[in-house]
C-alpha cells in the first residue's frame, strides 16, 4: 500500500521531539549564514546569489538527466535581476524559461500557489510540448497513469505508483489550500512536507521533480522572508541522489509517519547551508581577481572560462577543453591560452605534450 492510498493520507505524523532538536540547530545555522551574507557588500551578495541560483537550476535539471549550460543560466539570471556580471553570454529560450520559473518561485515567494501558476511553470519546462522524443501533456494535470520506474525495458522495477488521474483535481486542491494558508508550522518543516507531498501526487506528465524543488525553494525563501538565495538544496540532493530516492520510496510505502523523511531533509538543508562557506570563499576570490585585473583586456571566451575556474570547472584546463567549452577551434583556444599566459593570468603546468594544462594565477 502506498502512502496516498490511505484515508486522509496528508495528515502526516512525525516525532516532534526528534524533529525539533535538529530543527533548532538548523535554524540557528540558517540565521548565522544569512546574517553573514547580508553583512557583505551588495556586489558580493549578487555574485554569491548568481552562483548559488545557477547551481540550483543546473543541479535540479541534472537530477532529471538534463544538462544545462551554467554560463547561460548565470547570464540569464544576471540579466533578469539587473546584476552586473563579467562574461555574460547569450542564453537559449529554454534556459530563459527555466530561469523564469525559479525567479518566480523565489522572488515572488509570498504569492499564493495556484493551478495557473503551476501550469505556467510547466509550460516553460516543456515549451515544445515534448519531453525528449515523446509528446506530453503540457500546462495541465496528467490524464494518464503515472509510475516511477527503473531498469531495462521489459525488466522494469516499479518504485512508485502515483494517484490515479481522476483524483488529481481534489488532491491538488487540498495541497494548495494547505500550502497557501498561514499556520504556526515552521516554514522549513513546511518546505520538507510540501516537497514530499507534491512529488507524491506527481500531478504532471513530466517535470514533477523540478517543480517540486522550485516549490521547496519558494517555502525556504518564505522561511527567511528574503528573495536573495545563498544556498542550493538541489546541489546537495544531487550529491545524495541515490539516498534521496531511497528515503522517498520508503516514506511513500510507509504508514504515514514521515519522521525519517523530515530528518533527512533537515540534514540535507544543513549541508546546503555549510556549502555556502565554500561558495563565499570562491566569490571573494573571484571578486579579488577581477578587481586586481580590471585594466587587463579579455575577450568574451576568456571571461567565460575564467569565471568557470572559480567553481564551475571540473578537471584540468587544457586547450581541447577550452575549445569545447568556448565552442571555438583548437587554434583559437591555444591563442586564447597563450595570450593569458603572456599576461600572467594563467601559468602552464609542468606536464607537457598532450598533457599540457594550465592553472589560474590567484
Quick summary of this structure?
This protein is mainly alpha-helical.
Notes on the protein architecture:
The protein is mostly helical. It has two domains: 3-285, Fido-like domain (Fic-like fold); 299-360, Winged helix-like DNA-binding domain superfamily/Winged helix DNA-binding domain (Arc Repressor Mutant, subunit A). 59% of the residues lie in helices and 5% in strands. It contains 14 helices and six strands. Strand 1 and strand 2 form a beta hairpin. Helix 7 (187-201) crosses helix 11 (259-292). The chain starts with 15 loop residues before the first helix and ends with a strand. 34% of the residues are buried.
